[in-house]
Amino acid sequence: MKRSICIISAGLSLLAAACNKEMNVEAPSFSVNIDPSRLVADTFTYRVGDTTRFIFSGNADNIAFYSGEAGKQYANRQVDYRLGKVTLSFSSKAEFGTQTNTLTVFATNKLAAFDSTSIVDAAWTDITSRLKLATNATVVASGNADLTDLLSNERDSLFIAFKYSGVTGSTQRTWTITNYFVNNEVNGDIYTAAALATDVNFWTRLGNVKTPANAIWAATSSDLKITGGAAAAPANTSWAVSKPIYAGRIPPAVSTPVKSIVDPAKTEYAYSYANAGIYKATFVAFNHTLDDEKSVVKELIIKVIP
User: Fold this and answer.
1) pLDDT tens per residue, range 253-276
2) Cα 279 vs. chain centroid, distance in angstroms?
3) Cα(41)–Cα(48) distance, rounded to whole angstroms?
């Protein structure tokens, strides 16, 4: 009986040791080359639209590619905060009636809450004069209004507000806002911090006239719109206020998967650059398990000319 207990104990010890053993991997043996005839002073040169062929040697379970274009740069693979030139732009049209000064555009970096008192009493900066607004049904592009001065640092928030004012006594204007963007330009790269398509569900809309429903701002993925009333309609003040916009936030870069562990070995990867520029093309080859990961990074400078 004692012998059986000893055998069982030894077996359990071996099983526990096996369960505790980590699954380690070796670093991939991987390198990348390009046609040497393209090499000029340590830079590989192509024309826009050419196919760049990256030739692989060695092997790796997984390979990811960062082209070096905006949003696809290996150096930006993690969330970062950098403040460049922050701009607001949109297009507008004003239909019906002849009332003037019915649309005002505001911005602030401080908004205590999204209730009516906080919005009305906020320390708004009137930025209407920085923009071109429509005067009739012809769509007018606002241009890029520089709002960088309203932000104190790269982690500061920004709020945009459209305030509509229509008065009784004559036909009120109907305003439509399209192509709304808040962009942050850093070293020539443009990062979009706000847009109609992504912010459609995050506008706060306030107004003193709620009937009909279109007397208050309406938000869709393609426009912001408020419909003015007829001459006998009551005076109408309506606000559309954006969510907090963190313009200095740089989203992490996106890589293109080239190979996964279930794919056969790859001998090359072809890519075409659509715009002239100098790009740091980066391949990350890695082997991994639940317990371990080892990787190698290969970089090449690509110059694309018109």
Assistant:
1) 889 999 999 999 999 999 999 999
2) 20
3) 19
Q: What are phi and psi of 166, to 5 degrees?
A: -125, 140
As beta bridge partners, residue 226 has 175
Above pLDDT 70, what percent of the chain?
A: 92
CATH 2.60.40.10 location in the chain: 25-78+252-305
Residue 224 near residue 164, CB atoms below 8 Å: no
Tell me the CATH class for 25-78+252-305.
mainly beta
Whose tokens are 């009784």? That residue is 168
Angle ∠(135,86,138) on CA atoms, nearest 5: 15
Comparing CA positions, the residue from 161, 162, 144, 143 lying closest to residue 94 is 162
pLDDT digit string (tens) for 191-231?
999 999 999 999 999 999 877 788 999 999 999 999 999 99
